Amino acid sequence: MTIKPSFTDKKFLITLIFVTSLFAFWGIAISLGDVLNRHFQQVLHVSKAESGLVQFSIFGAYFIMGIPAGLFMKRFGYKNGVLLGLALFAIGSFLFVPAANAQSFGFFRIALFVLGCGLSTLETVAHPFVASLGHQDTSDQRINFAQSFNALGTIIGPLIGSQFIFKGTEEVGTEGLDKIKLLYIIIGAVIGLTALLFATVKVPATVDPHGDVNSGIEGDVAQVPSKKLFQNTHFVWAVIAQLFNVAAQAGTWAFFINYGHDKMGLTDSAASGYMIVFMIMMLAGRFIGTYLMRFIAPNKLLAAFALGNILMCLIVAQSLGWISFAALFMINFFFSIMFPTIFSLGIKNLGSQTQQASSFISMAVVGGAIFPILMGKIADYDVAKAYYLPIVCYAVIFLFAAKFSKVK
């Protein structure tokens, strides 16, 4: 009889709970960046294209920090990697104070870059960390489950933005920046406290299903790599697919509030409120997608969701009122499983090269640094037409899922 691998082992349960909670933290930070995108347009009087530099600062940090984070994780372990990420996250948050005092968009971008380095480190560490907490055959389920809490964080981010930043009046100048300053002082304090608490947690030795066969790893899926990392076509295509995936996500999220304001006639506060529902769609997609993976191969489900988003982008770009706005919500539903599934498929059967591969896939998030600027240039004229651009991204993801994701 074939015994179906369990979701995780009991000895890893507490560790899994804690690491999963980290996914929510960077979900909050990323989605708050999309709120800041619109807020900086108001208080610092930057254009839509210029406000895309918010995403450039955050996701550009992923490209810079990806390899150093991977090397740090390999040298000092998962736990210390998490602590480094949380420390950078907190420092970046506290840098919002002098940035607000200076009323400088450039200074805010520096703060966002440092914060982004923390997020990059956390993502580089957390994905292989979660994958290592059980059998490789269930790693897709664990990563998608953990990413569901990332989706929860993306709901909390716009909620904070709606109630904390946009609530009441549409302030400009120093009053609007004071709200941001206070918010990020609170965020920095929470992240700093979390780091102190995690430093006291005793993390059991992980059983990495991707490691060498000689390292005491259980199961028959572990293997010593027989070829160089970039000779694995499924990994190379995963990096490409992740770059286009995060590009599409960053652009779609960055101009959601603008779409609600320009095309639906909503106030920024109301549009930010709808963004909460927008993120709930992603959360629903994560849980539904994780369940469907029990019956449908992850790559086939990924291909179907990519086709779904090509259709949704076409509808959004037509500016058909509530029909297009509903399609915009569905983009986030279909987007839901893409990041974790691409990540999981990309690190399959890589043996001791898994941590290095994780760094490169995390670096691919740099796609999110460039795309919002391109979409912003079109959005300055017509925000609906800007949603034609992500179609290219979803076509690449479909190719990866349908043809290039299988391990050779």
Question: What does the overall shape look like?
Answer: globular
CATH architecture title:
Up-down Bundle
How many domains would you count in the coordinates? 1
- Beta strands, count: 0
First and last CA, distance = 27 Å
Which structural class fits the helix and strand makeup? mainly alpha
User: Which residue ranges are poorly predicted, with pLDDT under 50 across at least 5 consecutive positions?
Assistant: 211-223
Write the H/E string, N to C. HHHHHHHHHHHHHHHH
CATH topology: Growth Hormone, Chain: A
Cα-based radius of gyration, to the nearest Å:
20 Å
**CATH H-level superfamily title:** MFS general substrate transporter like domains
CATH class designation: Mainly Alpha
Average of pLDDT: 83
Largest sheet: none
Helix content: over 70%
Organism: Mucilaginibacter aquatilis
Keywords: Cell membrane, Membrane, Transmembrane, Transmembrane helix
Subcellular location: Cell inner membrane
GO molecular function, one term: fucose:proton symporter activity
Keywords, separated by commas or semicolons:
single chain; 408 residues; mainly alpha; Growth Hormone, Chain: A; 16 helices; 0% strand; MFS_trans_sf; fucose:proton symporter activity; L-fucose:H+ symporter permease; transmembrane helix
